[in-house]
Amino acid sequence: MQIIPRTTSLHTGRLVLAPADPLQAVDQATIIAALHRLGLLGGQRSDAAASAFAAGPALGALIGFTGCAVQFGGEGRAAIDVGPWLRIPPPSEAPRLFWGRNTRPPRCPACGAPLRSWRERLPVAAAGDVAPASSAPASCDPTSCNAVQPLRCDACETTSPALRWRWGRHGGAARSTVSIEEVFPGEGTPLPALVKALDALGAGPWVFFYIQD
């Protein structure tokens, strides 16, 4: 009889919202205040950093969920919150590239060809961020890759910054982010009221994508 070893549970996923222009940034306090007014943020989580919040009472009116039922948050401050929760870190000095196990080969901004060896070519940690000591430049941390450094297309030989490549809904580049945890890719979409509020923060229109660690 074959024995299958137990493994740790896989990360469900997160919905990441960010300015469409990855060079733009919004002050952390400005984002938090706006999302509190909307009702997207509940109480601060007691088990995490100051940038982590329970989901607020308006979560269901601001994010459209499909698939499995979602238990909405509130003002809970318990160490373990059920359902989605949010993280709003301070903006990074330089655009960071966000990727995960669900990320697909990005497409060249010039010719549209996919870069299948993208993982081996990931740039080094962004300015102001520190990659794990064990990481080599070719396998930088999924939240600290410098998105300004170039990637070269195998098809047309055009070299473009990583942030200009087309990552679809499976990755992206940003300085400011709003992350909603415990959202499976494709099963949570920002609704117009949230999109309008984010677009009004002064960094232009916002986009969204999904990451699975």
Overview of this protein structure:
This protein has helices at 28-38, 59-62, 192-199, and strands at residues 14-19, 41-44, 52-55, 63-65, 85-87, 96-98, 145-146, 150-152, 159-161, 172-174, 178-181, 188-190, 206-211. The chain has 213 residues and is an alpha+beta fold. The strands form four sheets. The chain has a six-stranded antiparallel sheet with strand order 2-3-5-11-1-13. Strand 2 (41-44) and strand 3 form a beta hairpin. Mean pLDDT is 85; it is low at 1-6, 74-81 and 127-138.
Task: Report a brief summary of the structure.
With 213 residues, the protein is of the alpha+beta class. It has three helices and 13 strands, in the order βαββαβββββββββαβ. The relative contact order is 0.27.
SSE arrangement:
Layout: E1 14-19, H1 28-38, E2 41-44, E3 52-55, H2 59-62, E4 63-65, E5 85-87, E6 96-98, E7 145-146, E8 150-152, E9 159-161, E10 172-174, E11 178-181, E12 188-190, H3 192-199, E13 206-211
